[in-house]
Amino acid sequence: MKKQRKSSIAAFVLGFIFLLLVGGVAFVFNSNLFEREAPQIVLPKEIEWNLKDPIKVQIVDASGLRFVRASLFDGEKSIILDTKEFKSAEKMVDLNLSFPKMGFGANKKVFELNIEAVDGSKWNFFSGNSVSAKSVIKVDTKRPDVNIIGSSYKIMKGGVAAVIFKAQDEAMKSLYVETNFGKKFYPTPFYKEGYYITLVAWPTHIESFTASVVAIDRAGNLTKSHVPYFLQDKKYKTSTIALEDRFLDGKIADLIAEMAPERSSLTKLEKFKFVNEDMRKGNEANILKVTSAVPIDLISGFYLKPFYPLRNGKVVASFGDHRYYEYEKQPTSESYHLGLDLASNAQAAMQTSNDGVVVFARENGIYGNNIIISHGLGVYSLYGHCSSYMVKEGDVVKAGESIAKTGLTGLALGDHLHFGMYVQGVDVRPEEWMDEVWLKESIFNVIESAKKIMDR
Description:
Structural class: alpha+beta
Domain M23ase beta-sheet core: 336-430
CATH topology of the largest domain: Glucose Permease (Domain IIA)
Number of strands: 30
GO molecular function, one term: metalloendopeptidase activity
Oligomer: single chain
Distance between the termini: 115 Å
Largest sheet: 8 strands, antiparallel
Helix content: 10-25%
Number of helices: 6
Protein name: Putative periplasmic peptidase
Strand content: 35-45%
CATH class of the largest domain: Mainly Beta
CATH architecture of the largest domain: Distorted Sandwich
CATH superfamily of the largest domain: Glucose Permease (Domain IIA)
Number of domains: 3
Keywords: Signal
Radius of gyration: 33 Å
């Protein structure tokens, strides 16, 4: 009887110990204190370095990091770039590694970067999870070569100019023309390998204009070359327009009912502000998206005929007008007119003067039925307020082809064509693109002169 009791107690004790062991093992395997995932090191396998800008390395770990070390090996000896130990574990560590100022790796072109990290886990007998990562560092301190081959003599506010340049670097990363107002114009490969062409635009609302070709290689070496343009200022019309009830209760109310019925409860002035500001902003965003694309395939030339989209069309509103609206002599809203309004007969046929591809043919708010055609080199023509389409998106059109008829769609009070020109998303003076002399002097002659230089 006593033996049986002792056996039962022993079995109970053994079972209890077993359960403790199982529970302990389960705790170890499931507790965050004993997590088993090694830290993650964000480090490319290969880095090109100019020895000036720091190399950025990020290390993350779920349980937190307690030790990080970065070292650089030049094939003969190694040097510590950074060591960090943390009393309280850090879940993310960013390293900014700079090249030693002196006494290491003289004239070496290749190094090996080694990153080591240990987390704060209690795994591996409380020593934590460790990881290391290596990257081959290739030294490149040579800046890209940039040489301006030719450019337009001048650029007018609201207008366009050309620039052709040579840019070379075996590790080229970025190439663009930078302006003083933040816009980047991207080039198209031109005529021969290593040469590029782009058009730049000076928006009407920007007071001054500068442009520089910027080339950056993968190592971060940068070359900036100023493009010398003579700046021709131009004053654009400003006008104050008194809003009438028949316009607010008619055209504006109809636009809201058709395109934004959820806004029907707004007052008539609120409806006008919504159409003139919010709807306009969305419509112009659609245009910007479509007209920002730039060809990336090499071209050997570029030529356009002057644009005459509407036969016998009379100008009824000019480009660049800054319009201030008021109601009962109180300021209400404002906007810029980004095209040239042309009118002739009602539902007159409009033509494209140059070959192109239809990239947009749909309803677009205040622009009504709207067509946009790409003509290459980031140049686009726009046709608004169409009553009907004769083309669809994706169509290839030829010079002289009828594409639509004028109308009253969108924010149009009378039958007319809203004609616009865009260069890489920037609205520009249509008058320049309708001027044979301007096209020749500012674009085509620049191209031909640059070709002669490139052929030498």
